[in-house]
Specification:
Layout lengths: L4 E12 L2 E13 L4 E5 L6 H9 L6 E3 L4 E4 L2 E2 L5 H7 L4 E4 L13 H11 L9 H14 L5 H4 L9 H13 L5 E5 L7 H18 L2 E6 L2 H7 L2 E6 L2 E7 H6 L4 H8 L39 H5 L5 E3 L2 E3 L2 H14 L1
Helix pairs in contact: 3-4, 3-6, 4-6, 6-7
């Protein structure tokens, strides 16, 4: 099966007065049709910039550097024209964000905003009347679990809870029946009960529409609930990727291991909590060699001098000189 989305050596930089901010700096990942890939990492690791790069919405001052590839259905979106991207956004790739209240216009009803998305995502040559679009908006609201959609369509964003607003955003994303849904921290601002409902809704809609989902998160609880595959990002690069089962049961990269150790477990005391020392380095000046080396208890000289490549390690891939050294020793023993 060919990947629906394949990212190769993605480099997205921002030119600032302080220097070049290398937010995504050599990202490699792939997502197969109908599967869910969770992109995990601390704040500042480049997750959201990677997602925005796929949509070509990196903003003023940002640029996707030459040599970057964002292959979607065989097309390289990194060099697609804006006219081509207008046909892809919403129609084939849709995105929902972590704070729906800032994504919706406060002066229009939610029904009107969903209806406008329906009209905007109509197929070329297909004319959708305002009445038909409003009817479709109500259908989409019912589909995402909003009760009494005809009445709630008349509500303004401030009249809805955070969970309801996120359902509205999902309805807008589904207006064009996309093949890929990008969800950037879609449950961060919600309480645990509503978060579980939204995740369950996304899983149901994925089955119903056959969508692939690229989910950006720092929450391993969300990963355990949603992911088929996991890519762990650190300092602008993917440092480990593989199936969710393999990454959870046998993490290869020290950063992945440290992240999993830092997840609170019911019954833990404060003394039991594990924290990763230090912080993510600045994209204005990534360190030489492995970017996790300054925080890694296993680092040795080569780690600080050379950047390790993603290397097959069991059922996943890891960018770690310690893993590579272990693999080399294992081959020597076999010979």
């Amino acid at each position: 099966m060919s990947p629906l989305l394949e990212i190769r050596n993605l480099r997205t930089y921002f030119r600032t007065t302080a220097g070049v901010y290398r937010a995504a700096d050599g990202v490699d990942l792939s997502l197969d049709p109908g599967r869910t890939l969770c992109l995990v990492g601390e704040s500042g690791s480049g997750k959201s910039v990677t997602a925005l790069s796929v949509m070509r919405l990196v903003g003023v001052g940002g640029s996707i550097e030459p040599g970057s590839k964002i292959l979607f259905g065989g097309r390289n979106l990194a060099c697609a024209s804006e006219a081509e991207m207008l046909k892809i956004r919403g129609h084939e790739i849709a995105m929902i964000f972590q704070e729906p209240s800032t994504s919706l216009d406060p002066v229009y009803t939610v029904g009107y905003q969903i209806a406008e998305a329906v009209r905007a995502q109509a197929k070329p040559g297909q004319k959708v009347t305002r009445k038909a679009a409003l009817q479709r908006a109500a259908e989409l609201m019912r589909l995402v679990g909003i009760a009494e959609p005809q009445q709630r369509a008349c509500d303004y964003p401030h009249q809805m809870s955070g969970g309801m607003l996120q359902r509205v955003m999902i309805a807008i994303a589904l207006a064009g029946n996309p093949r890929l849904l990008i969800a950037d921290e879609p449950t961060t601002a919600l309480d645990a009960t509503i978060q579980a409902q939204i995740l369950e809704l996304l899983k149901e809609l994925q089955v119903k529409f056959g969508m692939a989902i690229l989910m950006i998160t720092h929450n391993f609880g969300v990963v355990a609930e949603m992911a088929d595959d996991v890519a762990v990002m650190y300092a602008g690069r993917v440092v480990e990727r593989g199936s969710a089962a393999s990454v959870f049961t046998a993490p290869q990269h020290p950063y992945t291991q440290a992240l999993l150790r830092s997840v609170p477990v019911l019954g833990m005391t404060i003394e039991d909590l594990h924290a990763i020392p230090g912080s993510v380095p600045s994209p204005l000046g990534w360190p030489a060699g492995c970017r996790f080396a300054p925080r890694c208890q296993h680092a040795f000289e080569r780690c600080r001098l050379e950047q390790p490549p993603l290397t097959a390690a069991g059922t996943q891939e890891s960018a770690c000189w310690l893993t590579i050294r272990s693999l080399d020793k294992a081959r020597e023993v076999q010979h």
